[in-house]
């Protein structure tokens, strides 16, 4: 198997760590000391049992004395199992999360793992990972719905859904459609002179060393002309610089 008892922990700590991190239990450790010429060599055989009850053995040799790691320091702080992290890994598709009312708060259930929403700290970041179809969007819908219902005065919710697959009833707020709509950068009430200067500064920052005095004069003329004509836009600027018919029309 390749498992070796850690030399920095006693066996009891190693046994706990293996159970918590990998779900395996160390059932037995067998030590066999042999003298090879003038060197004492120890063969270590570790028996492990996984969650399905399967037994496996890992064997290796060491020049050290593993018995030293059987000493227990009662003054040392022992390992403590960490609480449920904010990274929640969802199960397989057949274990799709479902919500139910219980104990005054909804509980998300996947197999035998539970996440009680009342104890979830919404002030922290959370990452939900899982394969397609396991219920990540459903989990987020439940969390957002709980926030809006019980914590409306404490938290604000911003949902960015590129796939437009999530549904929230009674949603109050703005819906931004980045595909069909656009962002109006140059409003009709803007000052033409100030807007021209700001726009050319943006191009200067983007182009860097490729930005020169000649390009600055061309941009200022084009932007100012389009602003005063009420036709300034990114698409209009491109058309103004590339099509002589459009320039003559403006």
TrEMBL record:
<feature type="domain" description="Guanylate kinase-like">
    <location>
        <begin position="123"/>
        <end position="218"/>
    </location>
</feature>
<protein>
    <recommendedName>
        <fullName>Guanylate kinase-like domain-containing protein</fullName>
    </recommendedName>
</protein>
<dbReference type="InterPro" id="IPR002789">
    <property type="entry name" value="HerA_central"/>
</dbReference>
<dbReference type="InterPro" id="IPR008144">
    <property type="entry name" value="Guanylate_kin-like_dom"/>
</dbReference>
<dbReference type="Pfam" id="PF01935">
    <property type="entry name" value="DUF87"/>
</dbReference>
<dbReference type="InterPro" id="IPR027417">
    <property type="entry name" value="P-loop_NTPase"/>
</dbReference>
């Amino acid at each position: 198997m390749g498992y070796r008892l850690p030399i920095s922990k006693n066996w009891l700590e190693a046994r706990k760590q293996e159970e918590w991190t990998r779900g395996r239990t160390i059932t037995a450790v067998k030590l066999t000391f042999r003298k090879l010429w003038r060197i004492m060599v120890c063969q270590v055989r570790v028996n492990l049992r996984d969650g399905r009850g399967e037994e496996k053995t890992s064997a290796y040799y060491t020049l050290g004395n593993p018995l030293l790691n059987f000493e227990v320091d009662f003054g040392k702080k022992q390992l403590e199992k960490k609480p449920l992290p904010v990274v929640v890994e969802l199960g397989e598709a057949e274990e799709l999360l479902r919500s139910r009312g219980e104990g005054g708060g909804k509980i998300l259930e996947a197999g035998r793992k539970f996440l009680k929403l009342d104890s979830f700290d919404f002030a922290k970041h959370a990452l939900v990972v899982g394969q397609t179809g396991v219920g990540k969007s459903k989990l987020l819908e439940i969390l957002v719905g709980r926030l809006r219902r019980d914590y409306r005065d404490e938290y604000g919710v911003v949902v960015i859904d590129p796939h437009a697959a999530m549904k929230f009833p009674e949603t109050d707020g703005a819906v931004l459609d980045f595909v069909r709509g656009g962002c109006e950068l140059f409003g009709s009430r803007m000052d033409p002179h100030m807007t021209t200067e700001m726009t050319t500064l943006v191009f200067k920052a983007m182009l860097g060393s490729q930005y020169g005095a000649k390009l600055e004069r061309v941009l200022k003329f084009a932007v100012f002309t389009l602003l005063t004509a009420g036709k300034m836009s990114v698409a209009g600027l491109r058309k103004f610089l590339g099509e002589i018919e459009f320039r003559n029309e403006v």
